[in-house]
Amino acid sequence: MHEHTEHMTDEEIVSMALRDKAFFGHIVFRYEDKLSRYVLRLGVRNAEDRQDVLQDIFIKIYKNLNGFDTSLSFSSWVYRIAHNEAISAYRKKNVRPEGHLIDEGDEWVARESGALDTAEELFDQDINAQELQKGMTLLDDKYRSVLILRFFEHKEYEEISDILKIPTGSVGTLIHRGKSQLKKKLEEEHLRI
Amino acid sequence: MNKDPKQQNTNDTKSVLSESVLSRITHEQVSPMPKWCFTCFNYSIWVLWAFSVLIGALSVAVLIYVGDHARFALYEATHETPLSFFVEILPYVWIGAFIAMSGIAYYNMRKTKTGYKYPMWHILISSIVFSLVGGVILNLFGVGYLIDTQVGRHMPAYRSLERFETEVWQKPTQGRLVGVFSTMDEADVLYMFTDTQEQEWSIDTVELRKPDRELLSSGHQVRVLGTTTDTEARIFHACGVFPWMLNKNPSVADMQNDRKVFLERMYEHMETGDRLKGLEREVFDQEKHQMPFKEGLCAEIAVMKRMQF
Fold first, then answer.
1. Are residues B187 and B117 located together in one domain of the fold?
2. Chain B, 162-191: which have a CB under 8 Å from a chain A CB?
3. Which of B144, B163, B182 is at the close of a domain?
4. CA-to-CA distance for B219 and A189, rounded, in angstroms?
5. What is the pLDDT, as a whole number, of residue A173?
6. Which of residues B140, B163, B186 is at a domain's end?
7. In this predicted model, what pLDDT tens digit does every residue of B267-296 receive, in sequence order?
8. Which among B11, B15, B32 has the least Cβ separation from residue A28?
9. What pLDDT, on the 0 to 100 scale, is given for residue B285?
């Protein structure tokens, strides 16, 4: 990252991008990896489709820059748009999402599974990334989204509330129910993570 | 070395995606939507919310008005049971409107910038409370009466309280009349009365008490309970006179008094009837099926059978 924008906040870059679209490139640069992973986790597995979705997301972000609600963090606002675009992308294809949660090696998997484990002490230490992934795809969408944001995107409850536009209290409830459903699905499918 | 910071920034952050996004922005001439569009959208959501709460409040105002003015005190005069009275009087249109508007208000509130932060019941209850409070205030200014009456007068399909009460009370064959006193007859005995169908009636007031006669002759629209004694000549034997009272807000005391007066009148008629029948038994040693005295006719009207003193 260059010396002039690396210390700038997203909001500062946004205000510059509104004056000169070239600065929007910095926003894309900052978020493309994060959003690419997020979109992949939400179910857009095909690389070309993912690139298209990402382009659409950033175009939408650019179009709506003036509508950015400064009471939110820019990141939450970007994730909200990405979430909606990814959901409509796989709805357009009329298929159930095949989320690809784990793609970064054993160390990452261990960390994510550890997060789930320490959060509620639900899961065993024997980590099986593929089975966790399979279990997640069996969840209801509302639980899957919230678990992905909490345990794979490391978002706080407040941020998840802003991204999914649900009350903060509901985030906790959905996480709790999501984990219960995940546990049940894993048991039903004789899966073990 | 590139001295232009902007150019340098752009070069540093180049990625395939940012290149393609910026190129698409340029080629498709994409530009950020103006701020006023978002401001207008946000305000329009609030305006829609306020509008749905207002309609909800108007519905509540009509509901309160109908609840306030429905003459439950006289229900035996018009209906067999309290339940049948309520089933017929309930303003289903406004109940439906209130429920629908509460739903729309909830939906709009959720669409506001921060609406999603609040639990569903919180938003729903607050919208309902706004409508209820608004409805109470509007009703205090007579808006409930105004809406119900005006809609009833201009929309034939809408059954306002005024229309309902008129339909229910303008039934001479069932012993009920609504109208206004016009004059006394030539002999100064019968009260001439014009009903809501513009029909002239002679009201026999022999069984009426003084306050009833005064109310009847006041010139205000009144309800007369009794029985038609001559359909051709349109003679109506009155047993009780009650104020129309749709355009004023009755207090709880008014309603209690209404009930008290009604029960007293009917009880007196029952006593008179019993007394006269007893007299007949004593004098003729037999009892006729029909009341032999004109003064006892009120003891025979349908409402007396329903009341079962």
1. no
2. none
3. B163
4. 84
5. 94
6. B163
7. 888 887 777 777 766 666 665 555 555 667
8. B15
9. 62
